Hints:
Layout (H helix, E strand, L loop, with lengths): L9 H5 L12 E6 L7 H16 L3 E6 L5 H12 L5 H8 L1 H16 L4 E4 L6 E3 L8 E4 L2 H8 L3 E5 L2 E4 L4 E4 L4 H12 L4 E6 L20 E3 H9 L7 H10 L3 E5 L11 E4 L12 E17 L4 H11 L4 E8 L4 E9 L3 H10 L1 H4 L3 E14 L9 H11 L4 E6 L3 E7 L3 H11 L6
Parallel strand pairs: 1-2, 1-9, 2-6, 3-6, 4-7, 9-11, 10-12
Antiparallel strand pairs: 4-5, 7-8, 11-12, 13-15, 13-16, 14-15, 16-18, 17-18
Amino acid sequence: MATRAYAKYEGIFAHPSAAVETGLMSRLVMKFGGTSVATIERIRNVARHVKREVEAGHEIAVVVSAMAGKTNELVALCKDAAPIHDQREYDSVVASGEQVTAGLLAIALQEAGIPARSWLGWQTPIHTNDTHGSARIISIDGAGIIDGFRRGEVAVVAGFQGVHKDSNRITTLGRGGSDTSAVAIAAAIEADRCDIYTDVDGVYSTDPRVVPKAKRMDRIAFEEMLEMASLGAKVLQVRSVEVAMVHGVPTYVRSSFDDPENPKEGTLICNEEDIMEAQVVTGIAFSRDEAQITLRRVADKPGVAAAVFMPLAEAGINVDMIVQVVSDDGTTDMTFTVGSVDYERAFLILEKIKDKIGFSGIAGAKDVAKVSAIGIGMRSHAGVAARAFHALSEKGVNIRAITTSEIKFSVLIDEAYTELAVRTLHSLYGLDAA
């Protein structure tokens, strides 16, 4: 757990760039995404951000993504070479994008007078399982990076990649995997904080393009951020938030396009107890990548739900909202949602098992969206969701399905009403307030 200096360095979380006024040095991981390293000039700008933190007295590991567009280019090359290709070789190709960035940033840092060296996933090493294309991290040996700190070096680590120990093959972590790499490395080297630099200056109460009054949050709890990321917010990759929460890694979301000499405060993702007063609702998330499937007149008997959802799970299709309506004749209508990219596959799988399950018909819709309200304050307040249902009904928004948990609720609605629903809920819970 990354608690090496949490209590002692309380100030480092309130003021991310402040020098630590003790005899001990703090340790930071800084992660920069593809847009932040898209050109040589932007890489030089990243080097200035890193230099600021080095001069403030911090030990620094930097995790980088491939330059913007590079991964898509490498994926296209693989597909051109062979539409159906060896995933192990695919990983070898697409991992090269981060290797280029890591080397270029190390050169830029050296040019700026900062000792630095690049590290690839297999050099660290970052050990993963052998699920090529979407591997999961098993362990990280941070000893080499820490040795570099003792020599005064900045470690520049290629994100998104690792190595399978038994086969010694390069693996990649899936899209957004550099965020996961950064937080996992922060946990492995017991960093005091992980800073995720992106093209936005923090986590907002909702998408500012939909609600111009959306506000940047100073702090948000791990659980809230996990829900927001999984429900459509694009700021952080879900797995990175999971790793941060499990290992207690305080994580800042900040903008790489701020002035390196005078950066703005971002959003700190931290433990719930580190938030002075939790709002009832912290943010509104939405996703248009949803599809609805309804099975008509399914036999209402034990084992039917398993017979429906097990084949989907075995095909790697995630089912989200589920609504079951039982009739008097011993049948039920079963409605659920899947990701829009899985819609056709799910439909085919269910049609193949129609006779086995015994439903009379299947219907679907892709013109739907999921809108969610998230907040740890919901635990101690009643009627939060009911207020939303009333407000949406007054705006003429029909709710197709509902799911709830301790700290969130989600509604499935017609996609055409997405922005209206988001604006309505954002205002309802006082998130428009200055």
